[in-house]
Write a structure and sequence with these properties.
The chain is α+β, with helices and mostly antiparallel strands and 329 residues long. The chain has a 6-stranded antiparallel sheet, covered by helices on one side. It is elongated, with a radius of gyration of 24 Å. The two termini are 33 Å apart.
């Protein structure tokens, strides 16, 4: 489907938690690298100027994020200053601030959104030269924010190659990599990063801490352990329907690490029971509507060796306080 200006505006607007110009370190898949698909095309083949995996990853990351953010605007004849994009990308990627203030960013985004209200998806807004410059700066800042997050999360990529990928898209040049090569390069980099994290000393320490926690917890009053290793404690008996794995359920919950750090919570959250981590699928089938319980979920029944967000590190044992509000839609 051809990119539209409204799609481009959604991407840009969603990016501007950056309106406050704050950098948030995300995991790689949340930083723009999620553009990778499950392509099986080989990566890291000989590509002139991009001889290393880090350069290929950087180039692919830059080209894909530029394609998403810049192309919808350029396709409608809106001037994008690639020099300003790259200048501000590098500023923010290095931990600096872009060339607009948060107030200027908010004002511009409000004006831009207002000018496009009610317009057709392919209708180009009329931007002044100054507004075009601001748009270029904010695009660069968001790209730098993505690079900052990926870099600080430890995924290896080359920032100069990242800039080259952005530049080639912004300037309308032929890319040095095919879309399939880009997808494969990013996927391989993500996998290598995940493998390194899973085998790190921290991951091994998390596994040992979780096992020790569960061993001690198993002896506490009211705690039961299933054949899979899931531990649970019913804190309030329910009297309603008991779910099966194929049911949709609605729950209230709070998720914590074994040190008490809260990483998630929600109220009246609905989902198919067979679409969540195994510890939840098993544990909720042990409850009835109206019931409340605490699940102590070993890593292998949670996210295993994978990192999930910023707080759930590889091999994390998780603790959930859950209320089963409803079974069925």
């Amino acid at each position: 489907m051809k990119p539209t200006l409204k799609a481009g505006l959604i991407v840009l607007t969603a990016a501007f938690s950056l309106a406050a110009c704050k950098q948030e370190v995300k995991n790689a898949s949340a930083s723009g690298a999620s553009a990778a698909t499950s392509s099986s095309a080989p990566a890291n083949t000989a590509i002139a100027g991009l001889e290393t995996p880090a350069k290929q990853t950087g180039y692919a990351f830059g080209a894909q994020i530029a394609q998403q953010m810049i192309t919808p605007w350029k396709s409608q004849g809106i001037a994008i200053d690639s020099a300003l994009v790259l200048e501000n990308m590098k500023k923010v990627a290095d931990g600096g601030q872009p060339s607009v203030t948060p107030d200027e960013a908010r004002k511009f985004m409000g004006e831009l959104a207002k000018s496009m209200q009610g317009a057709a998806s392919d209708a180009a807004p009329k931007l002044t030269p100054e507004q075009s410059k601001t748009l270029s700066i904010l695009m660069g800042a968001q790209m730098g924010n993505a690079a900052f997050g990926v870099k600080n999360n430890g995924l290896s990529f080359d920032l100069d190659a990242f800039a080259q990928g952005i530049s080639d898209i912004a300037d309308g040049k032929a890319t040095k990599m095919t879309p399939e090569q880009m997808d494969a390069a990013i996927k391989q980099a993500e996998q290598a990063h995940a493998d390194a994290a899973a085998n790190s000393p921290e991951a091994k320490a998390n596994l040992e801490k979780g096992q020790a926690f569960l061993k001690e917890n198993a002896n506490k009053e009211g705690v039961k352990t299933t054949a899979s290793g899931l531990q649970y404690k019913i804190t309030k008996e329910g009297s309603g329907k008991q779910p099966q794995a194929t049911d949709e359920v609605t729950v209230d919950y709070t998720g914590k690490l074994i040190d008490g750090t809260e990483f998630d919570s929600g109220k009246n959250i609905s989902f198919p029971l067979n679409g969540v981590i195994p510890g939840w699928t098993e544990g909720l089938q042990l409850m009835k509507e109206g019931g409340e319980a605490t699940f102590y979920i070993p890593a292998e029944l949670a996210y295993g060796k994978q990192q999930a967000g910023e707080k759930i590190l590889p091999n994390s044992t998780l603790v959930f306080d859950v209320k089963l509000v409803k079974v069925g839609k």
